[in-house]
Target: Meiotic recombination protein
Amino acid sequence: IMVTVKSKMQDQVVAQQNEFEEDDESFFQDITCLQDHGVNAADLKKLKLAGICTVRGVQMTTRKSLSHIKGISEAKVDKIKEAAAKIINPGFISALNFSCKRKQVFKISTGSEDLDKLLGGGIESMAITEVFGEFRTGKTQLSHTLSVTTQIPGANGYSGGKVVYIDTENTFRPDRLRPIADRFNLDQNAVLDNVMYARAYTSEHQMELLDHVAGKFNEEPGIFKLLIVDSVMALFRVDFSGRGELADRQQKLAQMLSRLQKISEEYNVGVFLTNQMTADPGATMSFQADPKKPIGGHILAHASTTRISLRKGRGELRIAKIYDSPDMPESEATFSITNGGIADARE
Ligand code: ATP
Ligand code: MG
Model:
């Protein structure tokens, strides 16, 4: 009896895996298919303008947010949600299927093997990775290096892909990518051509750009692999000042981070954020070893899957430390900043 039970279970597992593979193909399912379930084309266009382009995107958005989209009534929201549920089962999956889904996760090299090792292979897709550190610790240099390394096919069938770069501090230098491309034997202009760049001027603009990003990712499914925001907090710091605006700032920040998280899962891309530090006035009074901490508070701390702190070492050496990760131990790696981008520290 046990044997038949077991073989039945095995059949079930195979069936589930097949089912999953079908779901796999529907990963980037465009909302156009909702038309087959009675949603009209004009409404779908409205959703797309709001940056919701995939069926998964519909499932990731609350009814309340959907009803805030111009021209989408509550009755329409119900219809859209129902149609989406018919295409992708919104409920539970087995841990086995989830494990299959996690196989789509890829890692992007930082240019330094030691730093990659620290990160368990590199910058992970379907997750938010945040680096923070004082000025000149290499956050922007790492962003430039990742703009190139993302394009290199890598381990476990990773195909390489394009990058979106949102720059809030006007420190992106396209020509900085050229020597980095040379180091990896890539064509300079091809590398630059694969990086979509936008300068954000206000925190609102930064949020609006994410709608365009979602549109881009949807237009070219599977082509983009990394979204960089350097730096995530700079404009929030300017736009909201003083204690009086802190609650408002954190609310807007939470909305933006939730958007970033959804984009990373919806399109299977990595999200790489840089962040600044501030002196913590409370900490200087205590016995804390490092009184400086990343800004953004608990909201950013919880949104980031992996947090890395950077500090200066001798010369061009920098030390990275895992700060907060669900599956990585807290440890350190040393790397160097070179003309060819981030690299292992030389002896
Ligand atoms: P901030 O907080 O001011 O934005 P950051 O952490 O972004 O700082 P980066 O601009 O990434 O810092 O790093 C600056 C460091 O990178 C400097 O030490 C600089 O010497 C080094 N650097 C910049 N370009 C090169 C290059 N072409 N070759 C070697 N090192 C470089
Ligand atoms: Mg910088």
Notes: DSSP finds 14 helices and 13 strands in the chain. Residues 2-25 form the longest helix (24 residues).
